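Trying the structure run again after the queue cleared.
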Amino acid sequence: MTSDTDRAIADFDKAIALNPNVAVVYTIRGLAYENKGEVDRAIADLSKVLEIDPSDQVAKEGLKRLGVTP
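Done. Tokens:
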């Protein structure tokens, strides 16, 4: 059974394929991965956010929660 979170992640994957430079999509997908306990994927997405927008506070806070210093 596919969860709502899994369906959302699939939608975010499609959005990123269309435009890989929209930070908010990586932010939301990263938070979804965090919610699922997929820490490595969450860290990768939130780190990508900071590559696009180094001032993004949501990504910084998320990385801190995951034990990574942004």
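Helices lie at 4-18, 23-36, 39-52, 57-65. Worth checking whether this holds up in the mutant runs.
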